[in-house]
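[09:14] KT: can someone run the structure on this one? pasting the chain below
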Amino acid sequence: MSRYIINGGKPLKGEVSIRGAKNASFKQIIASMLTDKTVQLNNVPQISDVKITTSIAKSLGCQITQTGEHSLELTTSKIINSTVPSGTGEKSRTSFMFVAPLLTRTGTAIVPTPGGDKLGDRPLDRLFDCFSQMNIKVSETENNITFNTDKIVGTHYTFTKPSHTVTEVIIMTAVLANGETIIDNAALEPEIDDLILMLNQMGAKIQRDSKNNKRIIIQGVSKLNGTEHDVICDRNEIVTFACAALATKGSVSIFRVKPNVVQTFLEIIEKMGAKIKTGNDEIYVEWVKPLTNIDIETEPEPGFMTDWQAIFSVLLTQTVGCSSIIERVYPSRFQHIENLKKMGVKVNFFNPEINNSREYYQFNKESDRPEYFHGVKIYGPTKLKPANFVIKDLRAGASATIAALTASGKSTIDGVEYIERGYEKLAERLWSLGANIEYIKT
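[09:31] RB: done, structure tokens below
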């Protein structure tokens, strides 16, 4: 179990460059397998989620060459296996996304039940519902899901609630289907548009409706070609470094970014009192005065991203007054709050009073449980106390790291393998900003 040893309490200041998006890179590796031609991906982060994905891809027939520190050349001349291996496949939710290239090229896909972070259920009912309309049969056992088809056909599918990942799987499946596919109430995340850009460069015919950007129209084509594509910047990294700077009363210049992909976040922290400057490919964030409290709700794009709330929670411990977070995307995503309580933060959990929970929440009502809370109040400012943590979740790990950097004194974080799922060389990059952080890899 790898460890961070952090002596916090020092403002972070300096410059940092953002890597390619975790939530785009591994999906684009999978998308490369839709063709037998060569695809060159640039700006691919060196993270464990990418390593898991490439391991699965190789087992299915993809030949992968590292052509640069952050570049991969991928060629899948032939799919040699329609079964995602259970060992690697169970480690990440990437496994079920392989159904797209496997189905389009072999007609069969067998994948293990999806894994990933411990965020509660990740129901696939929306995917199964759409697949049934596309002439794809689905059967489940306790450990595996099997998909079969003799011909994928286009369909018109409307999401009851938008789903980022399922939208992408349907897009990848529909690009080689017979006929037209229309997705209504589709998710709006920029990673989806980056995938669409890549697939269109490969010869796909995908567009968002100019009058309704929640409608995606896909005209099936007979084959796809190769391409070269640069992975979009990671929104979660931008927010992580910005929150780390603000929580420690420092400043950071963040390069190789598209400021518009975190516009909602920037507007919120500016409202709280942070100094913000943006350029074409850079963002400057600075603490100039005590930040004021704020209330937020997580929502699908263009709202406040659910992946940001654990990281943002640490910043709220340093604001003046009582702030609140309502989690509307997942039924249970406040595991990181226990870490903040260990550091002396006063919090109160609550459930918001709402009239129609099925419309208000993005998760399936069946995934909810009586013991889950969907809101938390955080009281600040708090002088955080150093603590020792064992983490079991990516974003909770990033949250604990920022909290340890904010607290005066020595903290340890065990289980940083989870952090490495989504952040490349995080300790090294924080050190470049002045953090006193030691990384012990085991």
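[09:33] KT: thanks! Residues 116-122 have pLDDT under 50 and may be disordered.
[09:34] RB: yep, looked fine to me
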